[in-house]
Each structure stands twice: as C-alpha cells, then as structure tokens.
C-alpha cells in the first residue's frame, strides 16, 4: 500500500448516519442477523464492514491487533485468478481476482457455521461484494440467511443492490451509504493529500460523484490532465484522433492495471455528469457508451487488455457521444 492509500484507509468510513443506525441496533436487545450495505464503490462500505464486525465480536480488553485476524470474522471475496496471482497475494503483492464468489466458498463457510464461535458468542460473515456472487452461491447463501445459526451475523456489501435477488434483499436490513458532498471531498483531499494542487483536487471531485474512494484513486493516479482531455473530447469530438493520441500519451507507455481501472472509472464519471444536461438523442448515446465502459470495467481486472488500445477505445466511446457521425468501435 503506498503512502497516499495508507493515509486514506480510514477516511472513507465517515458515514455518520450509517454508524448511528448500526450503534443503535448493536445496543438493542434484538440485533438483526443480516445487513445489506448498499452504495456506490468508494463510499467506505469495506472499512465500515470491518469495523462493524469488530464491534460485534469485541471482547473486553482485546487489542486491535487481535481483531485483524479474529477467528470469528470471516471475509468472503473473489479468490485470486490463478496460481500465479495466489502467489502474489501470499507475497503481499498486488494481485488479480476472479470475477465472482463461488458456490464452493459459500458452502465452505456454511460448514464452518456448524461449530460455535471460537472466542465468544458471536461471529461475523462479510461478503464483499455480494453482487459478485455466482448464481449457485446466491442460492446457497439464501438458505443460511433464512435459518442463520445463533450468534451469526452477515454483512453483505453491494455496489449494485438491484442485482441481488429480492429474496436476499428482503432478509437483510438495508444500510445506505450516501455520497460525500463536494465540500466534504475537498476538505478530505486537502487534509489527506496536501501534495495535490487545486486543479488535481477539482478534477477528482468533479469525476468522483461523491465517492471518497474514487477521489482517492484519481489523486493517486494523477488523472487531472486525462480528465481535461476527456472533457475536451466530450465537447469537441475527435475527428482527427489527435485528442485520443494525447490521451494515450498521458496514460503512459505501460500504465499499471490500477491506472487503467482509474481511467475507466473516470470516463464513466465524466459521461454520467453529462447526462442530465443533454438532449434525448445524446442521452441515449451516453447511456450506451456508459454501458460499454461498465462492461470493460468488469472485464479489466482479469482480462489482459492492450493498454494503448484500451485508452483508444475509451476515447472512441467518449467521442461517439459528442459526434453523431463517429461511432465507437
């Protein structure tokens, strides 16, 4: 984890209303057994889930270091994509994951629930993200949500809760995570990333759509110039491909996977910002381009895209919304 990311690790948990609701429930006599943490990426759901899980299994006198590997907190998330990626994970290096949480992972978790919690009377199961569950995994999870073992609590993170089965959503208490205001984001960036200049902060805030996590990513990846080029393509189109060429140059010859993902998120954000002020015909083009970018974003963590072709594709999709005669490939 780099220095900026380390400083941001706790920042995104600043969801006062969500914390108030959680603490009220925690202090009540009947704590609901399943919680759906719903909201866009980067709003602090992951940090919240971990801290909430720790509050569930807290033992008087236990230290924070004990909580980090607590035997009664189980996290279900996509596994490394292959053996090489698993080795990277074991070495503490960045690694790529599979696209989904498998049914075997859920079944393994269910088997563990047949025993009592190790250190106390409660245990927490974190599923992140729940909208990445395989179909079979969703059905397996639904069964245990219907009849949860005593003392077992579920925290399901969902970036797109509408993708979950209604039967799963109906068994969870919904906890919504609200976007941050521009003022909140700016204050956070000034406090946590003082090296970012006003232009970089403004670009991050404009593109982040209220997400501290995305704002962090844009600042970390220094996407201010790329944001400006994307905005120009939306305004002017790019009939001669010059702006797309500049976009490739700004991305660099060998951009990291993280930088590519951040550029995809940024392109989606600038398109979304254009939607409200556009006419019907342009809105349809924006929606189609946004859909394609979303599909690319889903594939990017596991597909080995050529970086130059990917950024040209991003530029083409942006240009297709500005120029009726140019279509995205």
From TrEMBL:
GO BP term, pick one: DNA-templated DNA replication
SUPFAM superfamilies assigned to the protein according to its UniProt record, in alphabetical order: P-loop containing nucleoside triphosphate hydrolases (SSF52540)
InterPro entries: DNA_Rep/Repair_Clamp_Loader, P-loop_NTPase
Name of the protein in its database record: DNA polymerase III subunit delta
Species assigned in the record: Novosphingobium aureum
Cellular component terms (Gene Ontology): DNA polymerase III complex
